[in-house]
Design brief:
heterotrimer, A mainly alpha (about 300), B alpha/beta (about 400), C mainly alpha (about 350), B: about 400 residues, alpha/beta, Rossmann fold, 2 domains, seven-stranded mixed beta sheet, five-stranded parallel beta sheet, globular, disordered N terminus, C: about 350 residues, mainly alpha, ABC transporter involved in vitamin B12 uptake, BtuC, two-stranded antiparallel ribbon, 16 helices
């Protein structure tokens, strides 16, 4: 394999990891923009998506089971998200730090429930055979580059989801409300926007997207009670880098983190890469504390 | 601060209540069973504890040891080394157990070691580990590096594999095992084509798969732990590198992991252990049957579980030979025992307190069991210090306690 | 000054604490000692979170820094490092000579100074970097969580220098004194108890000063503080540094009690569990932080062995319950006029009415 192909391969890997981060972080970022709360149980929505994929595939086996699993996981996670928003987050949203702790409690309970229901060792979702192919370039400057179908599929799902949400936010009335509440909640409410409903809808939309991410994770690894935990900290960093409630900001931040990790891993091992990522984030906020995209100033909050 | 009292009082009350369960009449003797029942290691350690408890109940059914029924005192190490140390202290000081079976991670063993040395206890440790330790207070039945890792390398050389890629979870066993392997790879004239580590529980292997594709090794020696294995094999398969195209030799995948990961993902990959459920022999057949009868027909057994089981049997044999439960006398008797038949085959403890046992290489079959494709020529004498990597170091026979 | 019931209870607790080694057995004493060490850290969380409004999900990092600073020395004690002796783990990690940064730790007093200085310096630098860009609240909590993850990953991956996943264990002496005997355990307990008492009264005093008032003002309205011409940065960085130092001292004492320091204590999950001790005990009351720490840890010690699965549900429920319904924690039940106390009194009154009928 040529050096250039290897490098491009790492860029591709970075983008592929970024597409997972964006799906995992989008819900966090959107709800954070609206309500200023972080849902620590967001990782468990990924977990739920994974388990729903597992259950769907046992009912609908065959090559297209995974395509059925996507909407099932979306709806399941969105529903649980709605319950969570209604029962815990909404009640506490005046106290963002307490919400954070309470949702951490929810995440412990959900993990233990998964452990009791499905066993600690996790379950397996076998990728359909049509995903087990790779596109290999045989000529040109990047000859030898392998592009696995699984990773192309992930990119495709992420692109479709991002496109759909962009349309929703920019072209629909609901999107208008979301942007309005995001920019100024009291004024939006005074104009007759049902901010409470907007919160609920956006929150469950976000958890639904996390459910989709869970299905995709199941193609790449095991579905275990703690599967969400390994993606949740990078997702938080995406939120910090991305800026408040911005779709573009979240996408760019995911790309930055995905590419940074993939490229730095050429030189150092994964553990050190994790440390350098944190250093990078701290350095980054020295220069752009408001994040990649600014909707509202962060400096005068609270 | 009044609540401190309440908390303490509640705790004291609870501890006395729990403490009274193994009522110590004349006809019983207490042993400790200390594994992680909660936390990340519970998944591996709970079945191990089941195997230890099975051995204890079988001994009791046969009339106990020295005429006494054995009462296991179970404690949770909670996957945390300082908790292991704390519970080991409790077992020795409060419960006054005569011996303890337990531990899985090296960190748990390292944390318990000073406790056992200070309180003159005896610990039976059943898991393969990185060697480089010989405490007079620990019986090491799990494999030393020269009983699991090096046989795998010998086998790979015999198969003609020359370029070797090492991948592991980022913790003590993989790093030390690979340190030893690297010395032998260089010494034997083989090529090391790469070495990579992922944090424990790591799930993203995209960069590492790319490194492997670039390096083009003949075989991968894999010391990944737990869930990371599934991610690794899935992402290798997605890149077209299935075990039949690029062989993988794993040290941490046994029957339960294979069953949970789905044998289809791993079929054709290799492992190195001192026990497989598929080993022939009546003793093993009886053990597997007893385990399934107690814990369910679809349960499987693996190397550490069997070592936990054999530890209890060896302890009983040593107590019988010594005629006392005194830990030091039991340890000395254990070393003096000859080869005993066990589910592992014929085993005994060497003077350095580690177990003399046979090494096997297994190939994973589609049914989740391993086909034994290589057996070491006879039982292997354990070497806590690899002579090539750590020249001049060795364990001496213990007299102190 | 008239002595109230509060004073008598306080004096009784102090007396019990001081004479505990003569009252309870060695195993219970070791538990109490190690949980008291944790409570020093918890008082730091009370300071930054309850009084400063800063939620840190990374206190395990400072706990670990303090623990490791002491453990580095304990591992070197008795080794002849001038002639090339090394801690055992370095041999099997492939290190051929003692790393340069280990050398100064051969001096016990350097090591003790580092228990305070390293966590303090790291806490000050980290919080200054983040707070100076006016990043706080939820963002700060998330960054500290990433810090906990990065620190524990780093400790594990740098096995040759840190002992890796195993951590550092098997100590025997400190400056020549045997620290493993039963007598030594009592001395270590008394040292811990003295630190708890000292930290308690120091923080009490600190919070009553002008500095304490400014810290609370920063919590309640950071921008107002700014508009009034004060810079909130020194208060926030100062509080975080003190909390870091307390965590470091707690970590060092815990290491002495437990005989081991390892990455298992510094990661994401232990760091957030530390917050729940304070959430349950009461985030605005110093004794609440101590009581919460002891209560949760004694409960964990008992429940997690007997019913491991129940413990996780219980811990999760505790998080939800404590912050939803008891924002001032158990201490709130004893505080006249607090919402908790009003609820508590209402229940009592209802019961009285019922019994009257």
């Amino acid at each position: 394999m040529q050096e250039s192909a290897f490098l491009l391969g790492q860029v591709f890997n970075g983008v592929s990891v970024a597409s997972l981060f964006v799906l995992a972080a989008l819900g966090l970022a959107l709800s954070f923009g609206l309500m200023r709360v972080i849902n620590m149980a967001h990782g468990e929505m990924l977990m739920l998506g994974g388990y729903l994929a597992y259950m769907t595939l046992s009912v609908v086996p065959g090559p297209l089971g995974i395509l059925v699993a996507l909407p099932v996981a979306f709806l399941g996670a969105a529903l649980l998200g709605a319950v969570l928003e209604f029962a815990v987050i909404h009640r506490l949203s005046a106290r963002p730090l307490d919400t954070l702790l309470a949702t951490w409690g929810v995440s412990l309970v959900l993990q233990q429930a998964a452990r009791n229901l499905f066993g600690a060792i996790g379950v397996q979702v076998i990728a359909p055979t049509w995903l087990n192919h790779t596109v290999t370039l045989h000529s040109g400057p990047f000859s030898g580059l392998d592009l696995p179908f699984t990773r192309l599929f992930i990119l495709l799902v992420a692109a479709i989801v991002l496109g759909a949400i962009a349309l929703l936010l920019n072209k629909t009335r609901l999107g208008l409300y979301v942007r309005a509440v995001n920019q100024d909640r009291p004024v939006a409410a005074a104009m007759g926007v049902n901010a409470r409903l907007v919160d609920l809808l956006v929150f469950s939309l976000g958890t639904g997207v996390a459910g989709l991410a869970g299905v995709i994770l199941a193609l790449l690894g095991p579905v275990t009670p703690t599967v969400g935990q390994s993606y949740i900290v990078p997702a938080f960093l995406v939120v910090i880098l991305g800026g408040l409630g911005s779709l573009v900001g979240t996408t760019i931040a995911s790309l930055i983190i995905g590419l940074f990790t993939a490229l730095i891993e050429i030189f150092v091992d994964v553990s050190v890469a994790q440390v350098l990522l944190l250093v990078f984030v701290i350095v980054f906020i020295q220069f752009r504390p408001q994040g990649v995209i600014t909707v509202r100033s962060r400096a005068l909050e609270g | 601060m009044a609540l401190k009292h309440i908390g303490l009082a509640a705790a004291l009350l609870a501890s006395t209540m729990l403490g009274t369960v193994p009522a110590r009449a004349d006809g019983t003797v207490k042993v400790g069973v200390l594994q992680s029942l909660s936390g990340t290691m519970a998944i591996s350690e709970v079945p191990l504890e089941d195997a230890e408890l099975l051995a204890i109940s079988q001994l009791n059914a046969k009339g106990g040891v020295l005429g006494k029924q054995i009462v296991p005192v179970e404690e949770d190490g909670a996957s945390d080394p300082s908790t292991f140390a704390q519970k080991a202290t409790k077992l020795l000081q409060e419960d006054k157990v005569v011996t303890v079976f337990g531990g899985w991670t090296s960190s748990s063993r390292k944390a318990m070691l000073p406790v056992f040395q200070r309180l003159h206890g005896l610990l039976w440790y059943p898991v393969q580990f990185e060697g480089n330790e010989c405490s007079p207070n620990i019986m090491y039945s799990g494999a030393q590096p020269n009983q699991q890792a090096l046989p795998a390398l010998t086998w790979a050389e015999q198969k003609g594999y020359k370029k070797i890629f090492l991948i592991g979870s980022d913790y003590v066993y993989p790093r030390t095992a690979n340190l030893i392997l690297k010395k032998h790879i260089a010494h034997d004239g083989l090529t090391l084509s790469g070495e990579e580590y992922v944090p424990l529980g790591g799930t993203d292997f995209s960069s590492i798969v790319a490194e492997i594709q670039k390096a083009g090794p003949d075989i991968i020696i894999n010391t990944l732990n737990g869930d990371s294995n599934v991610s690794f094999f899935k992402q290798m398969a997605a890149a077209g590198l299935t075990p039949d195209k690029l062989p993988v030799m794993s040290f941490s995948i046994a029957e339960p992991e294979a069953k949970a990961m789905g044998p289809s993902l791993l079929a054709g990959s290799y492992t190195s252990w001192n026990y497989y459920q598929s080993l022939p022999g009546q003793t093993n057949a009886d053990f597997v049957a007893a385990y399934k009868a107690k814990y369910g027909a679809d349960s499987v057994v693996d190397d550490p579980m069997v070592h936990g089981y054999v530890d209890v049997e060896e302890w009983a044999a040593a107590v019988t030979k010594a005629g006392t439960f005194d830990p030091k006398a039991v340890r000395n008797a254990a070393v003096a025992l000859g080869f005993e038949d066990s589910p592992l085959g014929s085993v005994k403890f060497a003077p350095n307190l580690s177990m003399v046992q046979t090494g096997y290489i297994g190939e994973l079959q589609p049914d989740g069991q391993f086909k034994i494709i290589w057996t070491s020529p006879g039982p292997i004498t354990p070497q806590p210090y690899d002579a090539l990597t750590f020249p001049g170091k060795s364990c001496v026979a213990h007299t102190a306690f | 000054m008239k002595l109230s019931a509060k004073h008598y209870v306080g004096a009784a607790v102090l007396l019990f604490g001081a004479f505990a080694p003569l009252i309870i057995n060695p195993y219970e004493l070791s538990l109490l000692g190690r949980f008291l060490a944790l409570s020093i850290l918890a008082m730091g969380i009370m300071l930054i979170w309850g009084e400063g409004g800063i939620l840190s999900l990374g206190q395990g990092v400072f706990f670990g820094l303090g623990g490791y600073a002491l453990a580095l020395h304990l591992k070197l004690e008795g080794l002849d490092i001038a002639n090339g002796d090394m801690p055992d783990f370095m041999t099997w990690s492939g290190v051929s000579a003692l790393p340069y940064f280990w050398y100064p730790f051969a001096n016990p007093w350097f090591s003790l100074a580092c228990v305070v200085l390293i966590p303090g310096a790291v806490a000050a630098a980290f919080s200054w970097l983040v707070f100076r860009r006016r990043i706080g609240g939820v963002y700060f909590a998330l960054i500290t969580q990433a810090l906990a993850l990065a620190f524990s990953t780093l400790l594990i991956s740098q096995q040759a220098y840190t002992g890796g996943f195993n951590g550092l264990t098997d100590y025997s002496t400190f400056d020549g004194f045997d620290i493993t005997s039963t007598g030594a355990a009592q001395v270590i307990y008394w040292i811990t108890f003295a630190f708890v008492v000292a930290a308690y009264f120091t923080l009490r005093w600190l919070l009553s000063t002008r500095w304490g008032i400014m810290l609370r003002a920063t919590r309640d309205g950071e921008n107002r503080v700014r508009f009034l011409g004060h810079n909130p940065l020194p208060y926030k960085v100062g509080a975080f540094t003190i909390a870091g130092i307390l965590a470091g001292i707690g970590g060092a004492l815990f290491t002495l009690h437990a005989g081991v320091v390892s990455p298992a204590l510094v990661g994401v999950v232990p760091s957030i569990e530390m917050v729940v001790w304070v959430a349950l005990g009461g985030r605005n009351v110093l004794w609440g932080a101590i009581a919460g720490t002891l209560l949760v840890n004694f409960a964990k010690d008992q429940i997690s062995s007997a019913l491991p699965s129940l413990w996780l549900y219980g811990l999760g429920a505790l998080f939800i319950f404590a912050v939803s319904f008891l924002p001032a924690g158990i201490a709130g039940l004893f505080k006249p006029g607090s919402p908790e106390e009003r609820v508590y009194r209402r229940i009592l009154n209802r019961r009285k009415l019922e019994t009257a009928e």
